[in-house]
Specification:
- It is found in: Cell inner membrane.
- By secondary structure, the chain is mainly α.
- It folds into two domains: about 1-140, Up-down Bundle (Receptor-associated Protein); about 140-400, Type II secretion system (T2SS), domain F (Receptor-associated Protein), CATH 1.20.81.30.
- About 75% of the residues lie in helices and about 5% in strands.
- It is built from 16 helices and three strands.
- The chain has helices spanning about 25-30, 50-55, 60-75, 80-90, 95-110, 115, 125-140, 140-195, 205-240, 240-255, 255-280, 285-295, 295-310, 315-325, 330-340, 345-400; strands spanning about 1-10, 10-20, 35-40.
- The chain has a three-stranded antiparallel β-sheet, with helices on one face.
- Strand 1 and strand 2 (about 10-20) form a beta hairpin.
- It is globular.
């Protein structure tokens, strides 16, 4: 959401727009950055067309492309302002163009690039801001952005592979559920009257299907309420700390899927640590960012413990070893990297290793899911055929 605000900073009155989840979070951001808010209200432009705002929303791919383009231009010798001016003219998406224009305006008024990006936390997380700040401090912003772009592109590739592996089973299962719904709701009730008129002896498969059909036809409002309520309360439970921890713990123990989740988390953690440490960010600050960006609560808790131990003077490798959820290769290689002084390079190599492991895990999942779906689909179709065709066959046989 976008909010218009009027605020005072360094004795000057400023009127701009800010992206934030709520008005209170926008006010919090302004206060933390030295602004004194006078007025804040939701921008009404976004209410004009719901559909256009939905399709015009800034997504992860836009941020990846923006990072890559800025990095290329900076490394080609252009200034940051010139790079942003060029991008403003090239970008087609209006929300993206507006955001770049606002960032450009802030930089021209004397704000650092990292501070300008902070106005858009939905697009630029803390990891992104920290790396940009590090690049500004070291004078290597172009180089840092190139590494960040590589990181984001690899993250996009991993997400794309996962989506590609899951799209086939999702389509097949959805189609199967729809066919079952049509059969139970429309086909079976009509056949039921035919069976009753001719007093045909029904097999157990047909009786089960008829029972399900009668129950669904009679109590469909209750079923919708129960299913909807169950989904609602499950989502609420998963949003709690206990619920999320329980879900994450179970997901890590799942066959094949658990391995994918674990390896994906390790890819993100090692790659992010490598980039941050290579950019000159301290290990403690890097661990703080990892804690914020890690999606799995089990790994998040582990990194919280690791940060506390590193803060007390323990090495990163020893801290990883004591948690018990990290593979031995990560522990051993981290210790080697610390001893040789090449921790960032070692972590980068580890991230590539875990990437290859994730590809193997995704292929294993695809290999496992496809025959399972075929078996379930065949069993479902066989059950429907037996339930519907067998009584009709018995009926025709009785007339011969």
């Amino acid at each position: 959401m976008y909010f218009k605000y009027k605020a005072i900073k360094n004795g000057q009155t400023i009127e701009r727009e800010i992206e934030a989840a709520t008005a209170s979070s926008a006010i919090d951001y302004l206060k933390k950055n030295g602004y004194f808010p006078i007025r804040i209200e939701e921008s009404k432009k976004q209410e004009a067309n719901i559909f256009s705002s939905f399709f015009d929303k800034i997504n992860f791919n836009d941020v990846v492309d923006f990072t890559r383009q800025i990095a290329i231009m900076l490394n080609a010798g252009l200034t940051l302002i010139d790079s942003l001016e060029i991008l403003k003219k090239q970008i087609v998406k209006s929300t993206m163009r507006k955001m770049i224009g606002d960032i450009d305006q802030q930089i021209k008024s004397g704000e650092p690039f990292s501070t300008a990006l902070k106005k858009y936390p939905a697009s630029f997380p803390n990891l992104y801001i920290s790396l940009v700040k590090s690049g500004e401090a070291s004078g290597k912003l172009g180089e840092i952005l190139l590494r960040l772009a590589d990181n984001l592109e690899k993250e996009r590739e991993l997400k794309s592979r996962l989506k590609g592996a899951l799209i086939y089973p999702v389509i097949v299962v959805t189609a199967m559920v729809m066919v079952m719904f049509v059969m139970v709701t429309f086909v079976i009730p009509k056949l039921l009257g035919l069976y009753k008129d001719f007093n045909v002896e029904l097999p157990w498969t047909t009786q089960i299907l008829i029972t399900i059909s009668e129950f669904t036809t009679r109590f469909w409002p209750v079923i919708i309420l129960v299913v909807g309520g169950g989904i609602y309360f499950l989502r609420r439970y998963l949003q709690t700390k206990i619920g999320k921890e329980s879900f994450d713990a179970v997901s890590l123990r799942l066959p094949v899927f658990g391995q994918i989740i674990k390896v994906s988390s390790l890819v993100d953690a090692t790659r992010t640590l490598a980039i941050l440490i290579g950019a000159g960010v301290s290990i403690l600050d890097a661990l703080n960012i990892i804690i914020e960006t890690t999606g799995n609560s089990i790994f998040q808790k582990a990194f919280l413990n690791i940060r506390a131990k590193v803060e007390k003077g323990q090495s990163l490798g020893q801290s990883l070893d004591q948690e018990g959820i990290f593979p031995p290769i990560l522990v051993q290689m981290t210790q080697v990297g610390e001893q040789t002084g090449n921790l960032d390079d070692t972590l980068l190599r580890l991230s590539k290793y875990f990437e290859s492991e994730s590809e193997i895990a995704i292929k294993s999942m695809t290999t496992l899911i496809e025959p399972m779906i075929l078996v379930v689909l065949g069993a479902g179709v066989g059950f429907l055929v037996l339930s519907v065709i067998t009584p009709i066959y018995n009926l025709t046989s009785s007339f011969q």
